Amino acid sequence: MRGAHTDDLAIDLARALLIPGNPVRNIHATSELNPWRNNVSIFLSEIAAHYPDTLTALCNIAAYLDTHGAPIDYRRRRTAFTDVDLTEAQFAQICLRADANPGRGARLLHARRHLFALLTGADLFNRRHQMAFANPHERGHYHLFQQQMTSTLRAELHRHATDLLAAAGIDEPVTWSPPGQCVAGLKLPGREPDDIDLNALHQMVIVDGTSSRSVARRLGVTVEHVRYASQQLHRLPPQRAPNSKPRISKLRARAEQLLTREFFQREHVAAGKNLATLATETGFSRWMLHEHARAAGVKIVTRKIKERVKVTRALRGDRIDPQWLREQAGTLHRANTDIAAELGLSHETIRRYRRDYGIPSRPTGGHSHVVSNLRHPNLPRDIRLAVEGQRGGWQRLHRFQQMIAYPSMNTAAAALGLHTQNLNLQIQRLETDIGGQLLQRAPHRYAPMVPTRRGQRLLDHLKQPAIRELLDRYADANARPKCGPYKRSTSDNTTSSVNDAPPSVAVSR
């Protein structure tokens, strides 16, 4: 019997409450709720045979109602609410506040049925009601609507039900049920709904999207238990796509509040901002701005480029200190990309700030490369001579640090995937830039390499954490494509490109 005909069971139990102490026949006592079914007596007899406490529970509830009454007069409500007043516009506003999708007419019908059952407690299978199900498919869709209803939408519909009661002059709570002590200690069919693990139910229903029947089988309860407990779960609105109806509705509602005639008079007519600038500042499309301007009676003026009012970022509110930007871009010669990475902005944003502040940009070409134009006033003198204004300086320092770990230049070139002549040329260029000898030349290329005193001091500087960070960041920034007779060793792969790490402000400044 467990889980079978649960809807009929709920109907029959509600009608059974009208039988105790009623002098008239059952068919007349219960006709106000639903037409009498001939097998109701058979059903009540069968359930009493298996669970005798069921009749005791019905009598206890009936006695409580006779003694204390109920705060809700459902007879008056069924007379007042033969239908539910919920228009399409009202439902759209409810969904807008709840961040829910109003959908098509079917969702509006399900919302009206939900309100009707909430207010009147009526049976939606009873064809006497206008909100009754037309077929079993509508019942399934209605249960799915209730199960997927978000907590905010449920609260908004409950608020609308309260407003409907107030409009009808009914001062009553929306719902009510007798106290639990009426059935305390009785052995009734099925499990207590409060015994269901809500955490496990949340995982299966909301996170995993498991059907109600599968959840009922896993938890050992009926589908009605799952539906009842699912209404107690906190269900958040799903993530919406930018072109979804709820997102568009919210955008339009915000546009109605912001894009007024006063807004266009102030921002477009007085300040001279065009649609592109307004679209960037407000987040609305040009089409939406144009439509609201036309609705507000403001004509959009298209000016020539020379006549347009340039609104600099200094007027919009500074986000970057001009003095700091001049120091970074003018004195330290940092590139726009490097500064943008530090501030979390785009390259184009930094370019516009430099334009607004009158900071000249560097010429294009190899001499304006981001790494070679950086200035490092806090670094040792030899390292500054090797990297400042020298393209490939960090790579040559890295080669010098790598090769010193090998017994000879020939062995180092083979391990690094270079020709011996090329490696020798890199070291010679490094010595020329620094202005001193770094290696003690051996009589032949297989002799062990020994750094000079200045070369050893340079190696010690390269081991410092701050300098090692810069070395790892910029060593491959100007490197040519890897080519040569040898494979690149794994030790050379430890270096990272300039794009792999954020800029170090403490060292570069």
From TrEMBL:
By its UniProt entry, which Gene3D superfamilies does this protein fall under? Winged helix-like DNA-binding domain superfamily/Winged helix DNA-binding domain
Query: Residues in domain HTH lysR-type?
Result: 408-449
Q: Name one GO molecular function term.
A: DNA-binding transcription factor activity
Database matches in InterPro entries: LysR_HTH_N, WH-like_DNA-bd_sf, WH_DNA-bd_sf
Q: What residue spans carry the region label Disordered?
A: 479-509
Matching SUPFAM superfamilies, A to Z? Winged helix' DNA-binding domain
Comp. bias regions, Low complexity? 491-500
Q: Which domain of life is it from?
A: Bacteria
Instruction: Write the protein's name.
Output: HTH lysR-type domain-containing protein
Species: Phytohabitans rumicis
